[in-house]
């Protein structure tokens, strides 16, 4: 579900799904937790391919953030479309996650 | 007659129902169908944000149906009237549980009149508290209290349930009703268009 590559100390996890919903939330969580357990605890989740997000996926995202923080890591998000960005702002996830417009912004 | 650009350009009530089989694989096609229907009646670009809100409300109501209703089907009803859009999900499945009520006896539907106005906590963490407010013996609305978000630490308690919170924040009015005589559940979110 995710395609990963590393850059500096970061692991970019690019979502290979169009619908980030309850069907994929658990698998997403499992794959990110595995990365963190391997020591890749600074993760940038790219939503470039994602059309919409539901609350189940947001819950999974918060869950992996808490796990990453417990390992002195962090999760940021990048390339949110307008609707997803509005949703993050609406429920103040923009104050919980670092949000970047583009991948180069992350590494700038 | 000249209408304000954000005023719904219809004089009569427009109602349409959609059937949902409570399967996640059906969400995308149903979502597309319902949003297309709404767009037909709200064609102006000035409604773009309202339609986006309708879409997210639908996503959450359909997801709620799959996760919590414990029944094989739901009905989604869209009503465009009085310069607002209302989106309802009804089913005959599991009723909404007010789990965090700690008084005795446990709350049961229909809710006793003595509880009118009482607030029952549904979710809480360090940045949000979501309450059910008992409006009458068959209906609750939702109230959200938000706290300032400071620097997150390992000790910060964050919940992982956002469905009702999203529905509350996107709607001008959002309620749940249970009819004990028919066993039917209803969630309704209303968005004002101007």
Give the key terms.
heterodimer; A: 108 residues; alpha/beta; Transcription Regulator spoIIAA; five-stranded mixed beta sheet; two-stranded parallel ribbon; 4 helices; 27% strand; B: 194 residues; alpha+beta; eight-stranded antiparallel beta sheet; 8 strands; globular
Number of helices of chain A: 4
Strand count, sense and barrel status of the largest sheet of chain A are: 5 strands, mixed
- The H-and-E topology of chain B, N to C, reads as EHHEEEEEHEE
Biggest interchain interface, per-side counts: A-B, 26 and 29 residues
Provide the spatial order of strands within the biggest beta sheet of chain B: 1-2-3-8-7-6-5-4
What does this protein structure show overall?
The complex is a heterodimer of chains A (108) and B (194). In chain A, the strands form two sheets. Chain A has a five-stranded mixed β-sheet with strand order 1-2-4-6-7. Chain A has a two-stranded parallel sheet with strand order 3-5. By secondary structure, chain A is α/β, with parallel strands linked by helices. Chain A is built from four helices and seven strands, in the order E-E-E-H-E-E-H-E-H-E-H. The radius of gyration of chain A is 12 Å and the shape is globular. Chain B has 194 residues and is an alpha+beta fold. In chain B, helix 1 runs antiparallel to helix 2 and helix 2 runs antiparallel to helix 3 (163-170). The longest helix of chain B has 21 residues, at 48-68. Chain B starts with 13 loop residues before the first strand and ends with a strand. The model of chain B has no long low-confidence stretch (mean pLDDT 90). Chains A and B meet through helix 2 and helix 3 of A and helix 2 and helix 3 of B.
Q: What's the quick description here?
A:
The complex is a heterodimer of chains A (108) and B (194). Chain A is an alpha/beta fold.
């Amino acid at each position: 579900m995710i395609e990963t590559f590393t850059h500096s100390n970061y692991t970019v996890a690019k979502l290979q799904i169009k619908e980030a919903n309850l069907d994929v939330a658990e698998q997403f969580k499992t794959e990110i937790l595995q990365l963190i357990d391997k020591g890749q605890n600074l993760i940038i989740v790219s939503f470039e391919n994602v059309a919409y997000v539901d609350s189940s996926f947001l819950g999974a995202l918060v869950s992996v953030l808490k796990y990453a923080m417990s390992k002195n890591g962090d999760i940021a998000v990048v390339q949110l479309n307008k609707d997803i960005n509005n949703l993050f702002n609406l429920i103040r996830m923009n104050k919980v996650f670092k949000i970047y417009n583009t991948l180069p912004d992350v590494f700038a | 007659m000249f209408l304000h650009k954000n005023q719904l350009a219809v004089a009569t009530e427009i109602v349409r129902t959609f059937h949902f089989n409570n399967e996640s694989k059906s969400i995308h096609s149903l979502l597309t169908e319902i949003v297309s229907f709404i767009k037909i009646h709200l064609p102006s670009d000035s409604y773009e944000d309202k339609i986006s809100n309708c879409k997210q409300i639908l996503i959450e109501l359909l997801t709620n149906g799959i996760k919590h209703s414990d029944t094989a089907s739901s009905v989604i009803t869209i009503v465009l009237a009085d310069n607002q859009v209302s989106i309802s999900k009804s089913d005959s499945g599991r009723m909404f549980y007010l789990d965090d009520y700690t008084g005795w006896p446990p709350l049961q539907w229909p809710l006793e009149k003595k509880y009118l106005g009482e607030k029952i906590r549904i979710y809480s963490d360090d940045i949000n508290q979501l309450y059910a407010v008992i409006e009458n013996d068959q209906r609750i609305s939702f109230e959200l209290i938000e706290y300032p978000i400071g620097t997150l630490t390992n000790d910060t308690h964050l919940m992982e349930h956002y469905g009702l919170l999203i529905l509350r924040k996107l709607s001008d009015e959002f309620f749940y009703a249970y009819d004990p005589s028919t066993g039917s559940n209803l969630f309704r979110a209303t968005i004002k268009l101007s």
